[in-house]
Design goal:
alpha+beta
């Protein structure tokens, strides 16, 4: 039991470190950059962005997985890509995530 707990703690620490690195890599994005960035998204990423635009910049990740042509895995990967690009951020609520635009993107899009 101790070994499992130690491994879980190590994994949690690794994830925290990775998230910190991703946060540091994000840059401030102007409104013009936001528009250019959205033009450069692939179809799946655009589907998620459109869902967010329809819902005032906020939606459950589960809703994204219900979009046509999206599975839970695919929606998770799309969310991660957009988080890495600095387009959206996630907020953990219970067992699900709320996906929303970053402040900069929201100002440029909505």
């Amino acid at each position: 039991k101790k070994d499992k707990n130690e491994k879980e703690d190590e994994n949690k620490n690794k994830k925290k470190e990775e998230n910190k690195k991703k946060e540091e890599q994000k840059q401030d994005i102007s409104k013009e950059d936001a528009k250019r960035l959205l033009d450069a998204l692939n179809n799946d990423e655009k589907k998620l962005v459109n869902l967010l635009m329809e819902n005032n910049g906020k939606a459950l990740q589960a809703e994204a997985s219900r979009l046509p042509g999206m599975s839970k895995l695919k929606s998770h990967r799309v969310v991660q890509k957009l988080v890495d690009k600095g387009v959206i951020e996630t907020e953990k609520v219970g067992k699900t995530n709320i996906v929303k635009f970053t402040k900069e993107i929201k100002e440029g899009v909505l």
